[in-house]
Design goal:
It is built from 3 helices and no strands. The relative contact order is 0.02. The protein is an all-alpha fold. The N terminus is likely disordered. The chain has one domain.
């Protein structure tokens, strides 16, 4: 291996006497080598590079086209969703308004029903009061009548003797007999 490296190192020291050899001037050799490599790359790589760029351009255009189609589809879906949202909002507002109207109607019906029930209770109360007043009035009348009757009987019993008592009974029997004849 030492022989191989020695041969390359010794190649660098050859005098250039018009024969083929290596140029040890780094700046000059790099520019020449780079020019040769770039020339070869441009000559042979122009078609490959052009094909690569064309393929890349086609992929970019396809991606842009696909993106535009997706964007248009997304815009259509967004518009449909907005239309559905507006429709649902309108329906929700209608339900809300109808619900409030229904609640107000039910509230008024409940108030009317409560007032009617209160009026019926007031009427029942008044009827009960009237009935109790009539009942009390009748009881007072009966009591007064009983007391008057007892007072009259007491007065009659104390004032009547047997003869007067027999005459009163005979008169009453006569009145009853006359009434019987009239009814027959």
């Amino acid at each position: 291996m030492k022989n191989v490296t020695d041969s390359f190192v010794s190649l660098g020291h050859w005098p250039s006497a018009g024969s083929f050899g290596f140029n040890t001037d780094i700046l000059a050799t790099n520019l020449i080598n780079l020019s040769v490599v770039l020339g070869v790359l441009i000559f042979f790589g122009k078609g490959v590079l052009s094909d690569l760029l064309d393929n890349r351009k086609k992929r970019i255009l396809n991606t842009i086209r696909n993106s535009e189609e997706l964007r248009e589809g997304a815009i259509e879906q967004l518009e449909k969703a907005r239309a559905r949202l507006r429709k649902v909002e309108i329906e929700a507002n209608e339900f809300r308004v109808n619900g409030y109207s229904e609640i107000e109607r039910e509230k008024l019906n409940l108030i009317d029903s409560t007032y009617k029930t209160l009026e019926q209770l007031e009427n029942y109360k008044n009827e009960t009061i009237n009935f109790e007043q009539q009942k009390a009035s009748n009881q007072v009348r009966q009591r007064v009548f009983q007391q008057a009757l007892q007072g009259a009987l007491g007065t009659l019993n104390s004032c009547l003797n047997n003869e007067l008592h027999l005459r009163t009974i005979s008169a009453n029997i006569g009145i009853l007999a006359a009434m019987k004849q009239i009814t027959d």
